[in-house]
Amino acid sequence: MAGKGIDAMLKRLQEEKENEALPAEQKLIVDPNRVDAGTRVSIDEEEDVDPEDADAKRPKPVPKKNRRGSKAMMAELEEAHALAENNKEKYTRLLADFDNMRARNEKENAKMFDYGASDTLEKLLPIIDNFERALDHVTDEERTPFEEGIEMIYKQLMDTLQKIGVKPMDPVGKQFDPNYHNAVIHVEDAEQGENIVVEEMQKGYMYKDSVLRHSMVKVAN
Q1: pTM (2 d.p.)
Q2: pLDDT tens digits, one per residue of 134-188
Q3: Burial class (CB in 10 A: 0-12, 13-18, 19+), 117
Q4: 166-168: strand order across its sheet
Q5: I need a labelling partner for 12 at 20 to 30 A (CA). Which of 47, 92, 103, 156 fits?
C-alpha cells in the first residue's frame, strides 16, 4: 500500500513539472479543494494483486460481437422501420376493408328499407285512385267547400309522396316499354307512331328507381 502512495506522489510531481514547462496560457490551475461536476467514482474494496497474476486479474474486454456500436444500432433502427411500415400497411388494408364493409352494410340496409317502404306505399295507391275518381266526378260548378277540402288533402298527400320519392310515370305519348307499362288495349291510329302509348288506363308509379306499380295503358299500332 505504501508503494502505491509513492507512485501517486511521483506521478503528481511529474504532472506539475510538465505543467510548469507549458506556456502561461496553457498551464492548468489545479485547486485541490475544487470538486468538478461529473460522475463520482468510489472504490469500496482494494485488493493486492501479485504482479504474476496481474494479467489474469485484469478485466477482460467485451467481445466484439456483444458491443453495441453504430452498425448494431442502425440494424435495429432499420428493423424497427420495416416493422412500422408493415404495421402501417396492415392498418391501411384493414381500414379499407372496414370502409368497404360499412359501405356494403349501408347499401344493404337502404335496400331493405326501400323494400319495406315499397310494400307499404303500394298499399296506399288504391286510396289515391279513389281520391282521383271522386274528384273527377265533381265539376267546377258542383264544387263545395267539402270537395275543395278533399282536393287539398289529395294534393297534400301527393306532395308528401313526391318528397319521399314516389312519382307518377306519365307515359302518354311515350314509347311503350314493358319494363314500365302493361298494355291492356291495342288500337290502330294512323296519326300515332308505332307502339306509342295513347292513353293511361290506370296510373303507374315509380319509387325512386324502382317500379312501384306498372302503368296500365292503351297502345297504338
Answers
A1: 0.54
A2: 888 888 777 888 888 989 999 999 999 999 999 999 999 999 999 999 999 999 9
A3: middle
A4: 166-168, 205-207, 210-213
A5: 47
